[in-house]
Amino acid sequence: MIVGRGEALLGRLVLVLLMAVTVLPFVSLLATALHPSGTYPQGLSWPADPQWQNFARAFTSADMGRLLWSSCLIVVGVVPLALVLGTLAGYAFGQLRMRGSGVVFLLFVLGLTLPFEGIVIPLYYQMRDLGLLNTRWAIVLPLIGLFMPFAVLWMRAHFVTMPKELVEAAQIDGASTWQQLWRIHVPLAAPALSSLAILLFLWTWNQFLLAIVLVDDPGKRTMAGALGAFQGQWGTDIPLLCAGSLLILTPTLLVFLVFQRQFVSALLQGSVKG
Q: pTM surpassing 0.85?
């Protein structure tokens, strides 16, 4: 497609504007984090004497080393199990012909409309009755269930576009349904699985509401739950809060930067297949 010079220039201007809108909140966070602790910076202003030690103070004040380990345990409990269950269910909906599968899949899709805020109170009482309140299981188990609608929808969108010739060739060779799944479909689904794993990691790592409501012990929460440590009885230390937010964001930014090529590739693959 031939694009005119004016259209190309307009496209670049729109991209620069979108990039500025995306980057501006991070710049504001960094500038605020470098102000003296206990102050209330007004607007977007760079401090005359940047307080880089605020990052070390925020790390120590919120005990982020302990929360980093806790977040890793929660991610390890959520992501692998959600990937396995989402793959199995997505394969069943995308490749197997089951009676009533359309209705069941519709119920899964309806799960996407459930907001965390709307079910957190019932979850609190369920976890209390199960004796799991104030444990990491109170975060892991609800997250697996809440991620299932998206995981199933994501994996089904991949499996439903697989060529039927592959399945027919495997069936002629005598492969069972289980063998078709693990030896043919799962290896070919690596881009979809990797992108889904990145999304589940980001959502689990940044989980704040469930960690605050269902777990009282700050040492068993996620990294995002550490932000509550900067909320005092009489006020909030804004510079340390911003420094802590940047520290919490760092692992997710690193994961996205390292795996961005696989993530974008999977998204583009899905958009082409429809």
A: no
Q: Does 2 score more than 80 pLDDT?
A: no
**Which residue, chain included where needed, has tokens 């340390």?**
240
Q: Rounded to an integer, what distance in angstroms lies between the CA atom of residue 274 and that of residue 264? A: 15
- pLDDT (0 to 100) of residue 272: 47
Backbone angles phi, psi at 95, to 5 degrees: -120, -35
CA distances from 79 to 9, 94, 210 (A): 42, 21, 16
Q: Residue 105 has which token pair? A: 């899949």
At 61, list the tokens: 């004040």
pLDDT digits (tens, 9 = 90+) for 36-79: 887 887 777 888 888 888 888 888 887 888 888 888 999 999 99
State whether the Cα torsion 214-220-225-226 is positive or negative: positive
Tokens of 24: 């501006």
Tokens of 221: 């929460």
- Non-local (6+) Cβ contacts of 75 within 8 A are 201, 204, 205
Q: What is the 3-state composition of the chain as percent helix, strand, coil, each rounded to the nearest 5?
A: 75, 0, 20
